[in-house]
Amino acid sequence: MPPARSASSSASIWAVTSAADLPISEVIPAVRSALRTQPLVVLQAPPGAGKSTALPLALLGEPWLAGQSVLLLQPRRVAARAVAARLAEGLSEEVGGAVGYRVRFESRVSARTRLEVVTEGILTRRLQRDPELTGVGLVILDEFHERSLNADLALALLREVQGALREDLRVLVMSATLDPALPGRLGAPLIESQGRAFPVDVRYLPADPVGRVEQQVAGAVRTALARDEGDILAFLPGVREIRAAQAALAGVGALVLPLYGDLPVRGQRRALMPDPAGGRKVVLATSIAETSLTIQGVRVVIDGGLSRTQRFDPATGLTRMETGRVTRDAADQRAGRAGRTAPGVAYRLWSERTQPLLPSARPPEILEADLAPLTLELAQWGAPDPGALAWLDAPPPHRVEAARTLLRQLGALDPQGRVSAEGTRLLDFPTHPRLAHLLTGGAAQGQGALAADVAALLEERDPLPPGSGTDLTDRVAALRAWRAGHRGPGGGDAAALERTERLSRQWRGLLGVRPDETVPDPHAVGALVARAYPERVALARPAVSGLGRGRFLLAGGQGAALPEGDPLAGAPALAVAHMDAAQAEGRVFLAAPLDPDSLQTQATWMDAVRWDARAGHLVAQQERRLGALVLETRPLGQVPAELRVAALAGAVRAEGLHLLTFPLEAAQWRARVMSLRRWRPDDGWPDVSDTALLATLEDWLGPALAGARTRDDLARVAVLGALQALLPWPLSQQLDELAPTHLTVPSGSRVRLDYRPDEPPILAVKLQELFGLADTPAVNGGRTPVLLHLLSPAGRPVQVTQDLRSFWNSSYFEVRKDLRGRYPKHPWPDDPWTHVATRLTKARLGKTGPDR
């Protein structure tokens, strides 16, 4: 079509006239050649080489594209807009012509658009709607070294599309730094651009600093303004620190501007461009400025050494922001920003001794993130088992299972893990499934405007100052007052409220509802929060000595506490939105009150049987439960056998096997079986150790627990019979043959064997009863000699041996010398080989004859 040819022609002209000035020009022919024959190519090029702003234009005229479009993925909205602007500038066009972009809630594209810059989530949505990517010939994944969750997902889906639907689709993976193993893992050729970075003088502090990072950065900015040339880019972990540093730099004689993801587009553009007045500029940025973005005029980088990232705790289902040390690869990326256009300086606000101690790189997000969005996307894709896709790093199974549990609670997945109608609706909202479920539920209940406000407030920064309490209803009221034009003092942070209103407006547009400025109903707010966070519905715990009000139990089983004196402390029930991830009792940051009666509709009656360790008996009742919350109880008459067995087994596991009585026969039975398991490892003898028995209590002990309810009942359980049922035929027959309980000795006595799992069985027998026996008795089919404990007439051990023949020939005479004076009535022959074996004294032996 003519517009496509025009765009290709413009791109080619621009590539010839402008790309030659960029380092990437040296490898453009290699990239073109590789993409002509390879479906997947990897390109490594340092920041500033032109891989994002020159290479895509140079590829638009390739014959294999055949008029199709190119998608260029960027990990952040700020970068997507900025890269699109630079690309359009290269064609001397406005954004929205041959080059356009799509980010969440915003797009500038037209029928002429051939090169579309999109954020990663946008590509996933497009793939879900059109798996063949109709009209797209090339997908470029930029800044892949960041290994974002969406980038990994996009690559896995694209590889499946290439294999099943589109052999002609090309994928170009681009990265500033690269895992050396990546090309091999992808089976793709690697093309490297050396770049043309200018030297950067990296300066360290003599010692690691003490104090707040914003004050350290502000001090370093003042130093750099006095000593160095050019604009300054300073890295801080978050918006709060940026605002504090900006305030500390008031009056420095330079334009000080913030740069972060939620900054309005106008503010972002201002930070990226030179000062219109021609003065020096200081940009205070989060890690968003590490890659992709070109901030014109920067010659100095100041690195505060910290980075703020999200960490998901699957044990609590909570994601929290963590501030930690910057990684070495990120520090290199940051420093490199100073040398893009001329020699520069990088101030690192830590000591050189600390540098090698920094983490080398950030782990892939897929290994640490909340996987609920990814799991829902995979279910919609038709791959509920993540293992069906070709991942660089597969999502951890335990995190996938935690995500499935949440999605089932939200009604997004059916019990088989397939996406439900509600799950499909949730995917229409570009947000976490929790908030999407809040929005769909609010709309269905006629609370769409309130749902939009609540969802926006949960996504954005808290507009109220610290100490304002935890009640989300107060935030909704502040937002609505601000919307109505009531912007008096103490009404909240105007910038935060503006961003929140902008997001709420987007949600209202999707829901088709008008704004609401009425006073919000606190219980309605709580009901919406409960819809998004069902496991964080909470009931007040009774106050106990030393602990006052404001402590709650969540449906997920975790404890939660409000700050001291919080107005919500007297609420009987809460829906908690934001809290920390402490294992025992987390601190609540944002919540809303709930009507306890509203929980009844969600709760279900369940039979509950548990062990009361203090009283020593089972407690059986029916409970109306919502997760860990018990709303009502009533007695349970007939106790189901499986619940009784489970509760009693739990009691034994908690208190130990000593709750059961193991008579000598049972203890020896276990030792005999464990001995045979050690002697004959291939014969299938079961593991009856403490660990194994505790792990399988329901299987072997369950049948013997009929009617048991108390600690005394457990002590009376017939343990031996329960254990014997573990032996299948023919092992049960072989046990007595291979590991007999007794052996008959030459005197005629049947002597009990004492089995020990890790030692030979012990035969404790009086020495005189073995006269004439040459070989040590053996068990295990004659393979395992017993350990003889030879006893004196009084039953005391005088010798321990497994070599009876050697004893008769040597040690016996020493023993005889010692004992015949102490036991003169017993025989102590000179020749033990020929004397009659006996358990009697000499006098009784003479009366009765040989002892048989």
Automatic annotation (TrEMBL):
Judging by the UniProt lineage, the source's domain of life is Bacteria
**Boundaries of each Helicase C-terminal domain copy?**
220-382
Any one GO MF term held by the record is: RNA helicase activity
- Report the PANTHER family cross-referenced here: ATP-DEPENDENT RNA HELICASE HRPB
| Helicase ATP-binding domain span | 32-181
Is Metal-binding found in the keyword set? Answer: no
Name it: ATP-dependent helicase HrpB
Q: Which UniProt keywords apply?
A: ATP-binding, Helicase, Hydrolase, Nucleotide-binding
Q: What is its EC number?
A: 3.6.4.13
What InterPro entries does the entry give? CON_HrpB, DEAD/DEAH_box_helicase_dom, Helicase-assoc_dom, Helicase_ATP-bd, Helicase_C-like, HrpB, HrpB_DEXH, P-loop_NTPase
Give a Pfam family name. Answer: HrpB_C
Enzyme class, first EC level, given as a word: hydrolase
The gene name on file is hrpB
